[in-house]
Amino acid sequence: MKKINQILKEQIELIRPDKATLSNIQKITKEFCSELKKKLNKRKIKAEIFIGGSLAKNTLVKKNKYDVDIFVRFDNKYEDKKISKLLGSVLGKKSKKVHGSRDYYQISENGIIIEIIPVLKVSIPAKAQNITDLSYSHVSYILKKIKKNKRLSDEIMLAKTFCYAQNCYGAESYIHGFSGYALELLVCYYGNFLKFIKVVSKSNIKNKIIIDSAGFYKNKNEVLRELNKSKLDSPIIVIDPTFKERNALASLRNKTFLKFKSACLDFLRNPNAKFFEKKDIGEVLKKKYKEKLKRVSVKTTKQKGDIAGSKSEKFFRFFVHKLAREFKIKKSEFNYNEEKNIAYFYFVLDKKKDEIVKGPHVTKVEDLTGFKKKHKKAFIKNHFAYVQVQHNLSFEKFFNMFKKKYKKVIKEMDMKEIELVS
């Protein structure tokens, strides 16, 4: 326990930005907000500006490149579909549009990426037309918690760094992990990072962790009964304390949870600072499996970020589905590099045993004809068609056949490049 506490104390010093850096970021952000407010006033646009994300909550983690979230909160007299375009006209050509559930913008200021997100002012969460409209409530809630217990800032920073290092951070559909807000809620609920990971290490998928810190529901059974079924898939359910009907951790999937749980267990058994260091998953797998590791890289035609990552992950699932017909898949990993806008597929495979595949009944003439046309060595036994399927392809041959056979599908799934990585 003493060793763990020492590691956590050292990590806080390593991941916390120095005062000069933090002061510079705050200065640039304040000046940008001031200029933006002037532009809004000049256009007589009724909107408030508030700073969100880690900067607002004093949980900013040291990085090579910092990003800041600035929300422009439009009066609800404006139409949902028009506020993004309106914000773009105010920001001008200097800004870069980023497509999402609601388009937002990026501007680089003195090496800092400022993301400007349009939201609507809502007084009732249920009336929010986009999840980002709840951001103001989220920031306010976490800030109140941190003001009551200032140590929570450090504990949240530890949770985010650890989660990011384990490739489990992000609510994006290609990650299916922990969002920043969900981690903040979890740390606030448990009081510190260590208690949070201890609970995770002892949990299992069958018995979901259910947290309702605001006490909206009488008990866990009522949560499971009243909440929309689509929001109950995650192994941890965190009722958003600002919105009764929302599971703040709905993005989390079993595979990501199990990976995170494994990391928590390993850290508790063998505490080491390396658990807080982001590693290249490709290099880790290559070191472990050496020549057994098969690698594929893909590039999509879509905009980098969540859209490209999601498209690539969907294609990965399609590729795995076809691969499983020919090989026994011992290990499969997906990793999307947003900076390069490239996704990598990693596999460790075994030869699949030859098998007898059952076809249609002899009375199904049309189906039987098609089956025999596809399988020249088909045979009839007990009034059914069968064929012996041999699995003797190398991965390289399979890959080349896949590209040729599914050329049209690859294009339809918005993939512009798919290559073997040596």
Structure notes:
- With 422 residues, this protein is of the alpha+beta class.
- The protein folds into four domains: 17-123, Beta Polymerase, domain 2 (2-Layer Sandwich), CATH 3.30.460.10; 149-278, Poly(a)-polymerase, middle domain, CATH 1.10.1410; 281-353 and 392-420, Alpha-Beta Plaits, CATH 3.30.70; 355-389, no CATH class.
- The protein is built from 15 helices and 14 strands.
- The chain has helices spanning 2-15, 19-42, 53-57, 83-91, 135-148, 151-165, 180-190, 193-202, 220-226, 254-269, 281-289, 306-323, 365-374, 395-405, 407-412, and strands spanning 47-51, 67-74, 96-98, 104-109, 112-120, 209-211, 236-238, 293-300, 327-337, 342-351, 355-361, 379-381, 384-389, 415-420.
- The strands form four sheets. A five-stranded mixed sheet has the order 1-2-5-4-3. The chain has a four-stranded antiparallel sheet with strand order 9-10-8-14, with helices on both faces.
- α1 (2-15) crosses α6 and α8 crosses α10 (254-269).
- The mean pLDDT is 93.
